[in-house]
Design a protein that fits this description.
mainly alpha; three-stranded antiparallel β-sheet; 9% strand
Length: 157
């Protein structure tokens, strides 16, 4: 049972890592018809997987004309501390959201342990502890994500 749980957890973590990596690769392409709001829509229209933000969420894009269409390009300089901090904040937000999803997984695991405790008080107490700690983790992750978003929005403004 423990080997199966560890294997399922490993598969879930692998799927999350692949999703975050895939979400951070593509940059948004905008059509010529929407050229009026291209700069505002570049990052907003970028694709995400599972609702995770992209690593370039807080960077300001530039719009470049490529013939009949427009493309969004990110120009950042690693020598500017502002650009580095924006990227670090976006990555921190991704990690916090993954932590929140892991906490949801621990709630499910704790519920499973509680249901399978078969009336044993020690197993039931252990399962309740998993659930309570996971709920605390979700609260901490949610508040921390909110704080990161506030800080990042003030840096972008």
């Amino acid at each position: 049972m423990i080997k199966l749980t560890n294997r399922l957890f490993s598969i879930a973590v692998l799927i999350i890592v692949i999703s975050v990596t895939a979400a951070s690769l593509p940059l948004a392409r905008a059509s010529a018809a929407a050229s009026a709001n291209l700069t505002n829509n570049c990052v907003k229209n970028s694709s995400t997987i599972l609702g995770f933000p992209t690593w370039y969420k807080y960077l300001k894009p530039t719009v470049v004309s490529t013939g009949n269409s427009y493309a969004c390009h990110l120009e950042f300089d690693f020598e500017k501390p502002g650009d580095i901090s924006k990227i670090i904040l976006a990555i921190t937000e991704i990690v916090l959201r993954i932590g929140g999803l892991a906490a949801v997984g621990f709630i499910i695991y704790g519920g499973f342990k509680y249901v399978t405790s078969q009336g044993d008080p020690q197993k039931a107490a252990s399962a309740r502890k998993y659930i309570i700690n996971a709920i605390i983790g979700i609260v901490i992750s949610g508040v921390a994500t909110y704080v990161v978003q506030i800080i990042a929005q003030r840096l972008v403004a």
